[in-house]
Prior knowledge:
Chain A is an alpha+beta fold. Chain A has two domains: 2-77, Glutaredoxin (3-Layer(aba) Sandwich); 86-186, Glutathione S-transferase Yfyf (Class Pi), Chain A, domain 2 (Up-down Bundle). Helix content of chain A is 52%, strand content 8%. Chain A has helices at 10-21, 43-46, 65-77, 86-116, 122-141, 153-163, 176-186; strands at residues 2-5, 27-30, 54-57, 60-63. Chain A has a four-stranded mixed β-sheet, with helices on one face. In chain A, helix 1 packs across helix 6 (153-163) and helix 4 (86-116) packs antiparallel against helix 5. The longest helix of chain A has 31 residues, at 86-116. The A-B interface holds A 48-49, 60, 62-68, 70-71, 73-75, 84-87, 89-91, 93-94, 96-98, 100-102, 104-105, 121, 135, 138-139 and B 48-49, 60, 62-68, 70-71, 73-75, 84-87, 89-91, 93-94, 96-98, 100-102, 104-105, 121, 135, 138-139.
Amino acid sequence: MKLYDLDVSGNCYKVRLFASLARIDLELVSVDLANGAHKQPPLSDLNPLGQLPVLEDGPYVVRDSQAILVYLAGAYGGLAWWPAHPQGQADIMQWLSFAANEVQHSLCAARLIKKFAVELDRHQALARSAVVLALLDSHLEHNDWLAIGRPTLADCAVYPYVALAPEGDVDLKPYRHIARWIGRMEALPGYLPKP
Amino acid sequence: MKLYDLDVSGNCYKVRLFASLARIDLELVSVDLANGAHKQPPLSDLNPLGQLPVLEDGPYVVRDSQAILVYLAGAYGGLAWWPAHPQGQADIMQWLSFAANEVQHSLCAARLIKKFAVELDRHQALARSAVVLALLDSHLEHNDWLAIGRPTLADCAVYPYVALAPEGDVDLKPYRHIARWIGRMEALPGYLPKP
């Protein structure tokens, strides 16, 4: 099973982190993003969006980090990470959307601007980051994990860009409940250190 | 089962549309967004993100339109819309992320700017809209539906802001495969017209 991967990408790290926690073997295929390999065949055929990561499991191909998490958990990871019941899935799904939308356009954007000189609105990214972190900190004041009282895909999807936030000049120090959650994540058996 | 709803919201329409297609009864509770009811109790307790829709099913509360779709399909809608197998869920999940991220920050943003005078980057929203529509049109050239060969939550999540795109000054005429897909959506038994 191949993961088309970029080491520094937080979205790729979501998948590598979950695979490590759930003891799923992945063959990492490093993609030469600097030379545009993600926008040329075979990658552009596997994912017309031109984004990484992409997972290839025999003939089955899936793009989008959240979708890859759902596939890996469902096919190989077990119900601990992605339960079968509607409330559990919906509780986690709230945070998968939060990762795809709110986190992507705040913490991830701030890091893209600072670390990779991507032309995005820095003021907006930092303002949105403050909202996202305040929401998370408040939620984690009363919850050890993002959803259903245990580590799930929700934590794997949201943790990477939170942990990498300082690389976007976003200070995590004011958020003590987030700090404790980061500590709990890093103490999980099989935890894979952030890039 | 209560849906805290805003008639003109495409995200709320996603849920109303799916409930209509799947014959699920919802009690609509109209929220006075103009007077900030979504940022005050009880709504701010049900959803600290201050967004609509929110679903309340007895003691169970879920926010985020994609998560509500997953909950309703899993609990009441049946496997036709959200299958139990990992590949089907992941195929649909790709489009739920696409709805939460790419569509939200392109077609939805363009409509927010034009129709509701929300201060967002119009140039960026229109440029992203062109990318999103080209991707969709290309996918729909070879597929009648977004995922797994039949109407699913993927179509319910992506259709609303595509169908509403002209309200954001985005012209759908160049996209003939999208036009045919819109026709197929509107011909589904139980289809609920867009707001």
